[in-house]
Amino acid sequence: MDAGGAGIEAVQVKRAFGAVTAVADVTFTAEPGRVTGLVGPNGSGKTTLLLMLASLLRPDDGQVRIAGVDPVADPAGARRLLGWMPDSLGAWPSLTAREVLIATAQLYDLSRVDARERADRLLDLVDLTALAGSAARVLSRGQKQRLALARALVHEPRVLLLDEPASGLDPQARIALRVLLRRLADEGCTILISSHVLSELEEVVDDAVFLLDGRTVGRDRVAAATTRVRPWRVRVAADASHGAGSDRESVAAALGRASGDVGVDRRDLLVPFADESAAVAGLRALVGAGIPIVEFAPAVGDLEHAFLDLRGDAAAEGSPE
Ligand SMILES: Nc1ncnc2c1ncn2[C@@H]1O[C@H](COP(=O)(O)OP(=O)(O)OP(=O)(O)O)[C@@H](O)[C@H]1O
């Protein structure tokens, strides 16, 4: 392992709780300047892994490096380098939002003056200035999430670990989070982010690490899943003279498929294509047949598609444990 690495490195990391193996075998790298998504179903070990990376839980086996520092051997050194945003704010509910940030900054050895200045800047960054004097416990879930993010950024970490940061955020706050994460990555930060909302993750991540039953899924398997047949959403211009049923017949006919191959989802038709070039040929055939297409796009994003496909593989093989 490269002890001088700037990002996150995990090699054959394991962690059990009694008889429950939460993390069975995790190996991955997250690069500086990139946002890496941690994707996996409920109970696949994401939070356990993040806790180990954050130096808050000891691995049973394997190695972790945070910007080259081993969080087991040097937890204080790792904590100086990493910002950790748990999935709930916790700690100090009676302090105000501003006091939470000042206290955290002072824990990282900032002077009181610098801590106040940093707190005000971060409150502005996460749009909480108006609530600076409110007790943390009275903040809404989304406001607590924003405060937790500000707290994670207090010491300008080089590595950012975020557990479900978008949960509870309204659409505007989610967009602001995406913009902020992109900016931090552009400044050289290494960002690892877990989320269940794959469509949102899709818009911000550069790379993805897939966890199934506590194990990282190999790149080859992910690449194969990403390129496998997927449904495309086809919308035909609304025409009062006939319903979706007859659109389905005409689309199937234009594509030379049986109408049973074409699914119906409310106003849209779902047509499986093997890859992008098959989709391009399909669209050409539909337009050539005079069908008024108003929308034509993959029905699920790359991450979601790979996730569903990998889960399908795992179910077919049976659980590896
Ligand atoms: N402290 C603990 N004691 C016992 N079992 C635990 C503990 N923490 C986690 N587990 C178990 O380890 C497994 C992985 O849990 P973990 O919370 O890491 O998954 P996750 O991927 O974050 O799940 P979710 O997406 O639901 O948040 C689960 O089966 C869970 O029940």
UniProtKB/TrEMBL annotation:
GO molecular function: ATP binding
ATP-binding is among the record's keywords: yes
UniProt xrefs under Pfam families: ABC_tran (PF00005)
Gene3D superfamilies, per database record: P-loop containing nucleotide triphosphate hydrolases (3.40.50.300)
UniProt keyword Cytoplasm, yes or no: no
Domain ABC transporter, chain residue ranges per copy: 8-238
Keywords associated with the record: ATP-binding, Nucleotide-binding, Transport
InterPro entries reported in the protein's UniProt record: AAA+_ATPase, ABC_transporter-like_ATP-bd, P-loop_NTPase
Family named by the database record: Belongs to the ABC transporter superfamily.
Protein name: ABC transporter ATP-binding protein
